[in-house]
Amino acid sequence: MVFFCGAGISFPADLPSFKGLVKNLYSSLGTVPTDVENAAIKKWQYDTAIALLEDRYPGGREKVREHVAQLLTPTNLTHPRATTTHRALLNLARARDGRHRLITTNFDRLFETVSSGTIRHSAAPRLPVPKQKWNGLVYLHGLLPEAPTANDLDTLVLSSGDFGLAYLTERWASRFVSELVRNYTVCFVGYSINDPVLRYMMDALAADRLLGEAPREVFAFGSFSKGQENQQATEWGAKHVTPILYREHAKHFYLHRTLEAWASHYRDGITGNERIVAVHCSNPPAGSTIQDDFIGRVLWALSDPSGLPAKKFAELDPAPPLEWLEPLGEYRFKHDHLRRFGIQPEIKKDDKLRFSLLERYVMYDTARSMQLVDVSTDLWDTVMFQLARWLVRHLNDPALYLWFASRGGKLAPQLVNLISLALSDSTAIPVSPAMRTLWSIMLAGRVR
Known about the structure:
Radius of gyration: 27 Å
Low-confidence stretches: none
Distance between the termini: 48 Å
Structural class: alpha/beta
Order of helices and strands: EHHHHHEHEEHHHEHEHEHHHHHEEHHHH
Strand order of the largest sheet: 3-4-2-1-5-6-7
Mean pLDDT: 90
Largest sheet: 7 strands, parallel
Strand content: 5-15%
Oligomer: single chain
Number of helices: 20
């Protein structure tokens, strides 16, 4: 996956959006928009407004862009969160092979500041081919040097004419975007739904679809105000983009905190997954929300193929409450999650496919499944084994017995062995005589 970063990621450093840049530009130049420019601004056509401004302002394109450079130079980076999001994105952009793959349409030098110039970069119009060997940070619309010359400013993709060259005439930007989406899953972050930059990129992908290309799914973080969530989802969907929506708050607070938390978790790898288990699983799974779906995070952590987070779950003291059995059995996972479990999915997406951590596929091309009860195979992976170890710690709870009984009572052979061993060791798990009797009946296959 590759992040595509817009102006919104620089809000904590007090840098403006495209809309804010245009507004500040008129103020900096000591002029006001003409009627035509105002009409363009009201239609979110900020690139057109800048083109019109460059045509009429004394000094023209060069003078306007000198002011743009000044407006996009941060004056104070001492705030503790000024560049936190940039650091998070650089962490998330580092692949397992050590390569960095990140794209921004911003001109500012905040990524350069954060990385101290240690990550190679490419700036428009000289762009890399976005395939497997690609390594570095791409400034798709140009980068402001520390002391920009008139020629440097002229290469920035800022006005409608610049966008026309980049995406329609010379097409170097649209070719890059098209090739990128063929090879990677793209996630836009820091763009508004009406951002002209996003519009040009979506138009380029729409042209590919007309030619029969089938780009991968495209995602975007997007904010919504109260009562507008469904409308925002529909508008993003109309652009063939899958939205990841969050509530609007001061300077997109939730977006920046989410990226920071995600980067921390990603950086720590398996240790991060184990920490999620340790933090959330000592208590019942209550209070999970769309904004803070800690149940979803726990399930994702437990599915780590190493089995180490699941082992952490099985051995927590005290044992995670049995209430976790319900979310563990929910059919939350879909076709796109099969690779997470070491299964190569078919090319054609199966939208009806659903499975849970407690009932999963052994082989996708067969009907065999991996589960605790009513089994069609006795193949388990290490994750299932560790979850079974956790369940055995609740043998004295009638709710667990009833859960198995309601599913037919026919236990997997590995589970039979684990329960038998636990019952034979009187010092391991305290189980009442009545429950021991009931378990012996189930282990004998007498429960229907």
